[in-house]
Amino acid sequence: QKDGYDTYMLKEINEQPHVINETLRGRIFDHKVVMKELDDIDFAKFNKVYFVACGTAYHACLCGAQILERATKLPVMTQVASEFRYNDPIIDDQTLCIFVSQSGETADTLAALRLANSKGCTTIAIANVLGSTISRDAMYTLYTAAGPEIAVASTKAYTTQLVLLTLFAVYVAQHLHDNIDTEILDQLAKLPDYVEALIKDEPTFEKYAALLKDKHDCYFIGRSLDYASVLEGALKLKEVSYVHADAYIAGELKHGPIALIEPGTVVIAVATQPHVAAKTISNIQETIARGANVVLFTTDNEEVSNVENIYRLPDVNPLLQSVLVAIPLQLIAYHTAVIKGCDVDKPRNLAKSVTVE
Ligand code: F6R
């Protein structure tokens, strides 16, 4: 069942080129996104959009929300489901609410969805499991095509959620605006090849993981979309390897977290967004000056000096970089867990589907 891989997590990481392709299948035609499931929604009636989910799916929402906001200029909010359901959100029949869940059975996400339904919102589920509760309770459902995810740590569900949320943003923009830039659609179609090439670089990411072998802590930094990516990178690392990992907005470093940096501290930085990459790279220099051991993920466009471990990601549309950088961050978490002898597929205290509050 593991197709020759040692673990389900590694198998599922390797399945990503295929399942991203499957998620894209039939969705792009004649430079337009096809989402027939949603064709009777009048997007012009919404004055705001909420994205709601838990854990990794919440991180996918943080990316999806930024992409949708930029594409449509609609105000978009993102909220963790366990907060949304209890915090009396200001929502009504002019609110579009999107709920993202791999399993479709997460108790808090389902409760948040029911609240939105009761307030008259239009609700869309983004699910992976056909016929799951979320798809029955939401007014509309879009499916990722990740296939069964067995490892507790989510990998392929996350990247397919990112792809579907990007398609969704372009789809809504098509409805609201006449002239939209569709260059991103050509690049989306090329993602499986880029992801495949990144997976082939596994030995490099294994080398980065070795830096964490004897460490108790690791810090991740990024700005804008890269912040969502580092939140997910830190979650993956802590859940499978039990290394304490925190993710910070790079601009927040000097407001507190930099006090934690000492000689040998590992800092994983992501700087792929052109409007803020140079800022993050300058924050990295501040950590290096305090002895940090930095691993930097950036693109060819950024000038970097003095950083020992730099990985240059392919130069795609910045809105798609979250999908690419997810691969090395998953592989760093995976190899750190392997080096430490952890049970990668079944981390302690965690269940695959959180059906209780
Ligand atoms: C982390 C992970 C969890 C889930 C979360 C939501 O790797 O898998 O954080 O993302 O429990 O689960 P779903 O998407 O099934 O609602």
Automatic annotation (TrEMBL):
Main subcellular location: cytoplasm
GO MF terms held by the record: carbohydrate derivative binding; glutamine-fructose-6-phosphate transaminase (isomerizing) activity
Cellular component terms (Gene Ontology): cytosol
GO process annotations (BP): amino sugar biosynthetic process; carbohydrate metabolic process; fructose 6-phosphate metabolic process; protein N-linked glycosylation; UDP-N-acetylglucosamine metabolic process
Residues annotated as catalytic: K352
Role noted for this protein: Catalyzes the first step in hexosamine metabolism, converting fructose-6P into glucosamine-6P using glutamine as a nitrogen source.
Protein's name according to its UniProt entry: Glutamine--fructose-6-phosphate aminotransferase [isomerizing]
Species: Intestinibaculum porci
Recorded name of the encoding gene: glmS
